[in-house]
Amino acid sequence: MSRPATFLVARHVRSAVAAASSRTVAQAASSQAVRYFADSPPGLPDSVKRVGKSVGVPNEYPGQNYAFNWALNADGVTPLKKSAFRITKPLDLKLAGLNQPSSMPLKVNAAAARGLMPEAGSNELTFDTFDEVSQRTKDLLSLSDSLYCPEGHVPGTRIGVRVISNSATLAPNVLGYLERAPRRDPASQTITAYVLEGTEEEFSGYAIEEIDEDGVAKSVAAVVVVGKTPAIENIVAGLELSVSGLLADEEERAKKAEEEEKEEA
């Protein structure tokens, strides 16, 4: 709310000099008020008048958003080249200079790829190996020229996903596959997929971990897909297998809680 301007009122003026002095003061005050409160100050060029209010966070631009960078940092990736695009809708692809998905929604058949996607802790993939590859992948993603990060829900669920990738070709189709979720402030998702393109190493795997969130047990998943040209089928396989594991954990916790209630009754 603007402050009301102060007006000088000269009362009981006894001389012309006093009246002139009062008028001079009043004009000065009025002039100051106009300069302070005017919506369109005279003498300013149109280019200056069109400038909006300054923002509280300087040096932000498409690909450089501090809140999103902190969210990526929490996921173990730091965009050192200051070019990380959060992609939640087709317009975000345009802002990132990417093409649109080949179709939307994009249907992906990952049945064959699921059989080749091991879970950490199984006979095919130890936790140590998964952690080693995962950390190496995060480090290389941090050094990438640009990061493209589609977000959404796994189709048919309300389980949030963030895919962190250096692939400009995969990102549009990943967005086409995911169901659109309400855009909120950047935060870690239940499933995080790390997809690195352009390496001689070939790796696919996923892991499910139980964490404590405000005193409540919760399962989260990480998917890692690395290769010269990673296939979207491998990414989708990791997401679908993660959903199955997360739901199984949730069901197991609910069953355990029910049994404990019966024992206490």
Helix content: 25-40%
In round numbers, the mean pLDDT is 84
Question: How many helical elements?
Answer: 8
Integer-rounded radius of gyration: 29 Å
- Strand coverage percent: 15-25%
Word description of this protein:
With 265 residues, the chain is of the alpha/beta class. The protein contains eight helices and six strands. Strands 1-2-3-4-6-5 form a six-stranded mixed sheet, with helices on both faces. Strand 5 (203-213) and strand 6 form a beta hairpin. It is globular, with a radius of gyration of 29 Å. The chain starts with 15 loop residues before the first helix and ends with a helix.
Briefly, what is this?
This protein has 265 residues and is an alpha/beta fold. It contains 8 helices and 6 strands. A 6-stranded mixed beta sheet has the order 1-2-3-4-6-5, with helices on both faces.
Mind sketching the topology for me?
Elements: H1 16-37, H2 46-49, H3 66-74, E1 84-87, H4 90-95, H5 111-114, H6 127-142, E2 147-153, E3 160-165, H7 170-177, E4 191-197, E5 203-213, E6 216-227, H8 232-264
Parallel strand pairs: 1-2, 3-4, 4-6
Antiparallel strand pairs: 2-3, 5-6
List keywords for this structure.
265 residues, alpha/beta, 6-stranded mixed β-sheet, 8 helices, globular, disordered N terminus
